[in-house]
Amino acid sequence: MSRSLGMFALSAGMVHINVGADETPFDVHVELLCSCSPYFDSIYGDRTKKPIPSDPVCFPDEDPVVFAELLAWMYYGDTPIDLPSRTSIHFLLQLWILAGTFEIARLQNQVIHLCRTEIAKVPGRTFSCDDIDYVYNHTLPQSPLRLLLVDNWARNATQEHLTSCQKSLPYPFLEELCRALIERKGIVKNAEGEIHSVERYNIHPPPPEDQNGRLMPRERVSEFPRTAPPEKLRNRKIARPSPRLNKASLTSPLRAMTPNSVEENDPKSEVSSQMSHLQI
Known about the structure:
By secondary structure, this protein is mainly α. It has a domain of 81 residues. Helices cover 43% and strands 5% of the residues. It is built from 13 helices and 3 strands. It has a 3-stranded mixed sheet with strand order 2-1-3. Strand 1 and strand 2 form a beta hairpin. Helix 4 crosses helix 6 and helix 9 crosses helix 11. The longest helix is centred in the middle third of the chain and has 16 residues. The radius of gyration is 22 Å and the shape is elongated. About 16% of the residues have low confidence.
């Protein structure tokens, strides 16, 4: 569903964001950015009281190509269905993780279902060892993305998959895969095979608060961006955009999500040997 952008979302000033090691510059409408991302809404929480900073916010560790796709979603309100065909599964994983960094649950839900659809196009296809390693190094335990990878391997992986990858697979993944295989042994499949519910991989953010700080019922939450009240926007002091070249950069804000560390001495081989007794 395309996004309907109002005047306030596009006329309330711009913010400057530098992404990647080369500091690729992006200029974004502040109200649109903050209405889509609670992370940026927190950074620019006083935007109705003070001028918008002219110095850029920097994310040197992020990929500017992935960030550009995230911004495209903000402006258009949807993820193109051809995105997997012109990028890759790994790109979708990167986009899901970046959306999580900026707390954009709606984009995460769209992307994970694109991932799920794309991987299912080829019967028996599994996520690669590199994909698994990347996801487990950039997500927290109980992440829906981790769950998707475990479900995929529990359903499609063979003994050959495990043998070729067991030395590079993260121990938490092996542990969760072993648990999933044990659980599957107790499940009676129907004629069409086991199909996990779409909701299994969704993220449900807490409902927003109204102006008095009270939680709004979910049925009242709009699917479209929320902007600052018009009376506050009328009184805003706006810093006009200026040339981006040769400007000093600010220190990057702390990431909202830190990689999950994996212990070096975990007995992977022991877990793998136990898994060999289960049906993969």
